[in-house]
Amino acid sequence: xxxxxxxxxxxxxxxxxxxxxxxxxxxxxxxxxxxxxxxxxxxxxxxxxxxxxxxxxxxxxxxxxxxxxxxxxxxxxxxxxxxxxxxxxxxxxxxxxxxxxxxxxxxxxxxxxxxxxxxxxxxxxxxxxxxxxxxxxxxxxxxxxxxxxxxxxxxxxxxxxxxxx
Length: 165
Hints:
By secondary structure, the chain is mainly alpha-helical.
């Protein structure tokens, strides 16, 4: 609920929509009631559809985990360990690896536009004219470095259509 209030504070007066999986934290009545109270539209994916419908789970998380593993093994190989010896990694080092991984994935994404391809593979192409509500007014989206641009404009299949009525 803290996240929902923070999100609403970042975009005062704007309509907000979220697409969530059915994790227990997402579907609790307290969270859904809070979202409704704040005017945030929540669309839940069907159970078991994560690997099919969640672009971040399909590509982004895997890419980040791959980089973190690479950094971990480079660190482990730089140590003089005895066979079977466990490696202790300070929390600060892990956070540094996560930050580096996110930076690398972001740089790669800017070059390759891979996330757009993954959204398309998941059937979430916002430019697919068969899924767009015709005659809807153009949408202006405030662009920031962290904004994903117009992922689901005017789609009939989701409650997000309510955002633009």
